[in-house]
Amino acid sequence: MKKEFIYLAILGGLLAALPAFAGPYALSVATLILYFAYTGQAWNVMMGFAGQLSLGHSLYVGVGAYAAGALFFHYGIGPWAGLWLAMALCVAFGLVIGFLAFRFGISGVYFALLTIAFAEFTRIGFDHLDWLGGPGGMFLRVAQRDVWDLANFRGPPLMYYYAMLFLTVAAFIGCWMLLRSKAGYYWQAIRENEEAAQALGINTFRWKMAAVALSAAMTSISGVFFAFYYNNLFPEQIFHINRSIELILGPVIGGIGTLFGPILGAAVLTLLSDGITELLAALGWEIPGIKQVFYGLVLLAVVMFLPHGIWPALHRRLGFHK
Amino acid sequence: MSLDLVVNVAIAGVLTGLVYGLMALGLSVIFGVVRVVNFAHGEMMTIAMYAATALFAALSLDPFLAVLPVAAAFFVLGYAMQAGLINPFITRPEHSQFMLLVAVAIILVNALLMIFGPGARNVQVDYQLESFEIGKILVDKARLYAALLAVAAAAALFAFFRFSLTGKAIRACADNYLGAKVVGLNVKKYYALTFGLGAACVAVAGCAMVLLVDVTPPLGPYYTLLAFVIVIVGGLGSMTGALLGGVLIGVSEALAGLFIAPSAKSMFSFGLLILVLLLRPQGLLGKKA
Asked: Would you kindly state where each structural domain of chain B is located, as residue ranges?
């Protein structure tokens, strides 16, 4: 336990000091890694802790991004107010989906497909909402890049990096505490055996709803960040099933249900993807699609040979014990 | 908007829906027996479509003749994929199987992009422009032939499962994994056979579909979702349900495209899916789990 804390403190210190020696490109890659680490952690609450497989998490990213983005775009209201709207809407969406699914006894593959259906349904719906730009997209005003305008969450890339670092650390600590709380034990009981959990008197419906609500609220913050970091939103991109898959790859590769898995998975996948791009550019093999083929092959190898993800395997190697 | 137009569009929807149904039948058979959701289903469909366009371009082979070699190749590939890749995963958790097939899907769709490029491909045969006229109703010849091929392939599959000894053995594996093992069936071999048959269904559906639409790599993920919607609406694991679901989705897509906007058509499919999942989670023709 002690050893883990020391490693984590060193890692945290390195990440906090990273901007001092990283160039703009490295900083953008690091921001992306943290974005996927945080969002993966949010998904992990639902799947890794409570065992509910959601394949439609892009719904919460998209609704969060559009809620805060629209307030800013139409009324000039900054993201600190928009954040609450985003969270409220995403929790409402999550609760509706959760209520419908859990009340009607939908679980496993069917639940996963239901989450895809809701995300796709919303994607096509947003394509037809002209108030939000429709398929042509919504573009947020880009302010001066060198001034820290915290009230409107506008500033240099450094600001976004630290915001994402803060979120990742906060989510890590929050999830660590959750896993050791009553809720965490209830969720893990539901994940391992729902009927047994129910027999022990756990209100599984209520706790599954709580997991969905928390996961949706956390993911909505990713959406708000996405809107103000990229400044453009297209339903076709943000709600697409590929986005949902992309954001769950990190925790799955890193290790579902572990605290460090989503962070490690996000780092491995983002660096891998960038590494493949660089390598192919160096070799001069710039054929469309070749990068994703390599990416898919690595993914296949990890899924086949490390069924529980990278972190549980590495965990033992590093001599940590549970 | 005249009634004739609506009837014409609805008929076209039914015919396209039968081809969708055959595609979904492949998914349904695989899920019903192997209990693995094939997330690379639509990607396999587009491979079959590309194979048909390539055979047409190289040998000017009509897609209705290309069906035979493509289906045979798909059967072998499907068998190999189940035996080599998926069989080790059948005891693993769902999300693990999901990731495996997502990885396969990413590789397939991008391999197609590498080989064929992003442009649309199609086949051009003379009967694509002709149609049968019955009063004011026009039925495209190519669409009708494609639907007939789909129905014939589905009927052959029904007969196989119903009457052949191998089909019976596969149904036994689906009903009771342990029981099938106890009576001495080589379950993994039958799983591979089932995946091969499912892949062959997709191959036939792909060859038929290439007469109706142009093929591009992004069509793969779209068809995967479409096949999910169809089998859930019809009932996962139910063979007639898959065909019924295909027709329902085909008609609703066609009519939504006519009355609202072509871009909104899949919204209706997903809306239908949500309704069915909530009101009858086992699907229209599915048995209660």
From this structure: 3-279
A116 in B contact zone (CB under 8 Å): yes
A91 located within any domain: yes
Answer for the pair A265, A252: CB distance below 8 angstroms, yes or no: yes
Within a domain: A312: no
Q: Is A110 in contact with B114 (Cβ distance < 8 A)?
A: no
Name the percent of chain B in helix, strand, coil, to the closest 5. Answer: 75, 5, 20
pLDDT tens for each residue of chain A, 322 residues long? 577 788 888 888 888 888 888 888 899 999 999 999 999 999 999 998 998 989 899 999 999 999 999 999 998 888 898 999 999 999 999 999 999 888 877 778 888 888 988 998 899 889 888 888 888 888 887 766 677 777 778 888 888 999 999 999 999 999 999 999 999 999 999 998 888 998 998 999 999 999 999 999 999 999 999 999 998 899 988 998 888 988 888 998 898 888 889 999 999 989 988 888 888 888 887 778 888 888 889 889 888 888 888 888 888 777 665 4
Number of domains in chain A: 1
How many CB pairs below 8 A link A and B?
Answer: 119
- Note down the domain range covering A46: 13-239
Residue whose pair of structure tokens reads 């939000």 in the numeric block: A132
Whole-model pTM?
0.87
> CATH classification of B3-279, choosing from 1.20.120, 1.10.3470, 3.90.550, 2.50.20?
1.10.3470
For residue A224, tell me if it sits in a domain: yes
What value of ipTM does the predicted structure carry? 0.83
Which residues of chain B neighbour A256 with C-beta distances below 8 Å? 95
What's the full length of chain A, in residues? 322
Q: Is B257 on the interface with A (CB under 8 A)?
A: no
Contacts of B134 (CB under 8 A, 6+ apart): none
